[in-house]
Amino acid sequence: MIIQFLSVAAALITAVSATSLFWPYVRTEPVPEPLDTVRETILSTSIGKNIIQSLNLAEKPESTVDVNAMVQGAMTTAVDTVKQKAEDAVTIEFVKQVVAKIEAMGPEEKEFLHTTVCQ
């Protein structure tokens, strides 16, 4: 029971610490005061300074990452890819059916088709 409690507490502390560090990079709103306090506490420790330097988070960002724009861009790309693959599948099926019909034609019909297409 105590181990579970300590595990949950450690996970919660890690989540709050990570949120306080990454907030300025992913949110446009100002950092809430409790998170700012956590960030300042982290920055005052040697371990925190090492983490900040290794993640290159020492400076506050000049601009934030627009997560909504990233998701929207990914969705647009995915939809475009699916649309293109569907169009390709329809085209391939159409060509297969035309080839099958041409192969099923008699010699006279093939000659007529050849004459008509090649003129």
Can you describe what's shown?
This protein is mostly helical and 119 residues long. The protein has two domains: 2-54, no CATH class; 67-118. 80% of the residues lie in helices and 0% in strands. It is built from five helices and no strands. It has helices spanning 2-26, 33-43, 46-54, 67-104, 107-118. Helix 1 (2-26) crosses helix 2. The mean pLDDT is 82.
> How far apart are the first and last residues' alpha carbons, in Å?
86 Å
Q: Give unreliable regions as ranges.
A: none
Helix content: over 70%
> How many strand segments?
0
For the record, the count of structural domains works out to 2
Question: Helix/strand-derived class?
Answer: mainly alpha
Radius of gyration over C-alpha positions, nearest whole angstrom: 31 Å
Question: In percent, how much strand structure appears in the residues?
Answer: under 5%
H-E order: HHHHH
The biggest beta sheet reads: none
Mean pLDDT rating = 82
Q: Give the count of helical stretches.
A: 5
The shape is rod-shaped
